[in-house]
Amino acid sequence: MNTISRKDGRQASELRPFAVEWNPMGFALSSVIVRTGRTAVLCSVCREEGVPRWRRDQGLGWLSAEYRLLPGSTPERQRREWLKLSGRTQEIQRLIGRSLRAALSMEALGENTLLVDCDVIQADAGTRTASVTGAWLALHHACESLVQQGILQTNPVCSQVAAVSVGLLEGEALLDLDYSEDSRADVDLNVVMNDDGDLLELQGTAEGAAFSRQQLNQLLDRAEPGLKQLMKAQNEALLLR
Fold this sequence. Notes:
The chain has 241 residues and is of the alpha+beta class. The protein has helices spanning 87-101, 106-109, 127-148, 179-182, 213-240; strands at 18-22, 30-36, 39-49, 62-69, 112-122, 161-169, 172-175, 187-194, 199-206. Helix 1 packs across helix 3 (127-148).
């Protein structure tokens, strides 16, 4: 039972409503708007022939990711980041890139580069985890399109990836925090997992007091069922595109 009353009435183990809109961008190889509660992220994938110089002549592909908060995505307008990216932005786009590269066979991708863009339309916490979950959908669809076009022989996506946030608030582990919870949480943890149940990324911070190994296990136990639900929702979204 909840000891904390959540603003939207959810149980501690309950995800925010998850929804997907396919192909809002007509020129991208694949695009999707993913919504988790009031958080909405536009994820798109484009292809460039060839790979970065340091990757050439190895028969391997590459994937890079960019992440931005759009100006009207928060209560106070976000300034566009041009030449100098904030540390937060760099950290998040590296997280997205690492998570998606873990799902790819670079050999099957060949000497092609996939460029993933995650643009936050509305931010109510969990933007990086929604970006990973939505970008995997766009990536899978993009690679299917490359196979259909004859550019690739097989789909290089070799595993499924999803991400979710969990946090400790007043001693209770909560799944999929919104901003009202995230801003008050004593511990905030972002978890990225594949469909084998293996962890790809853990980003945890003691915002208030330090947390114990037991509390970390409690947070992971809260995250795993939520991640499995998100993967089920991803699979359902792929069938409906």
